[in-house]
Amino acid sequence: MTNAITYRTRWADMDPNGHMRHSAYADYAADQRLVLLAEWGYDIKEFARLRLGPILFREETVFLKEVHIGEEIRVDSRLRSVNDDGTRWSITHTIYKADGRVAATVAVDGAWLDLDKRKLTTPPVVLADSFRALPLYEAPVK
């Protein structure tokens, strides 16, 4: 399982101040979630077949260090929580600079949407179990 992915930041990720724009952090976290889901057998085609999709209720980014164009970053996903039936979950993505320092954390709270009924639904057991298999998030000691 790919719990972490390394990326190289792009021109499109930058803001006029010369560092990574705020929403790019969320974009990298979302991409890493989609890679995880695909590795678990839940790619876009499978979600379309199941008429199921992930949704977010909350997304919070804490910025700690600047990231610049062309920098290598690593995005790591850790489970904060998942309820018994897997309908709701929380993940924290930690974005690391190449030297190992934490650049930001992106915490998300999500659930599963039935795409036909437009209502929350229970995911397949295998998908819920995959979330439970993620390493647990441990807040950094200050």
From TrEMBL:
Family matches, as InterPro entries: 4-hydroxybenzoyl-CoA_TE, HotDog_dom_sf
Domain of life per record: Bacteria
Gene Ontology molecular-function annotations: fatty acyl-CoA hydrolase activity
Protein name per UniProt: Thioesterase family protein
Coiled-coil segments on the chain, per record: none
Pfam families: 4HBT_2
SUPFAM superfamilies: Thioesterase/thiol ester dehydrase-isomerase
Signal sequence annotation: none
Native organism taxonomy: Bacteria, Pseudomonadati, Bacteroidota, Cytophagia, Cytophagales
